[in-house]
């Protein structure tokens, strides 16, 4: 306990870090305040209470802004959609591939294209959002209300983008991820209170067991997020002028879950297509009823297909995010080599083989984590809390917290303070130098 208190004192003793933390808290407070500002022309007392399916997941990621019909109803999600589209374009379109290789200037152009693409995406999604609001909650429905509300939601999303960029520049952590994480965490206290109330005193032991299981799942997600396979790299002796550098042994860290949360997001988007298509075709038909039954999150068919898609997308996203050929070329140019493996093509094939092997357990673990909220729901956990037993919410939460702690620890170590752990480094962080191919 004393070490924890001393660490907090050290954090606030660093002026730059203290300022960044206070700025982050200020920007987060502004965002949370906006989540409760209801759109003009909508009666919040007549809004439908509760959201299920994709809307329930979206509402969790937005911290209730979606169900409250606030000016931040779509939050940062359209920007995330635009980022995914630009990421795919950097693979398929030569122009964007060229931009990606231009370094900082290319990255700025891609970010600018992402901001521009966000506007039409949020306009389209805001129209879909208005369709989910029950007519009784709208005071004066009509063309003017629709257009003005779409503009307000678009402005709200752009303001969330600005807040995220400000957190990145003047705060601590990645601003966009931080905004999503805060929205998720804001629902956790209410979910815990609701779960405790539903169990009551008679089932307090069951509630305690649920908390233990939740803790173990969080630990498993941390392990999956931090797990890496280290490939040893040897650098030959280098002579420059009158100095001679001895041979160095470093490592290339290949993450077991290099795809992160993206496979779950892609798979989740596809899993709602059958229901939407059936509803659009003929929502009163027997076919639509059958599709709604089989593609319900509680059905085993839904979860089996969902898990399969996650495994497929994990391999796909890993293949486009980690390039063994580029890693091998960078090693060859810098004079490094993997012991026992020839530089060049052999090294690329060696890295690709290892990546393929470690991706399978990572993909299976990710699929299990994604379907576990359904398992928790079937075992009696209330729906709001079951979303924290895995899936997108938990992975985002764990990833953002670990990234923020890493940044805080870096500030402490630069100022010669003890790190967040006794070993002066977070678990999962390498203790030896790392060879990172850029």
From TrEMBL:
**GO terms for biological process?**
intracellular protein transmembrane transport; protein targeting; protein transport by the Sec complex
Xref: PROSITE patterns: SECY_1 (PS00755)
Q: What is its main location?
A: membrane
Which Gene Ontology cellular component terms are annotated? plasma membrane
- Subcellular compartments: Cell membrane; Membrane
* Lineage top rank: taxon: Bacteria
Into which family does the record put it?
Belongs to the SecY/SEC61-alpha family.
The entry's protein name is Protein translocase subunit SecY
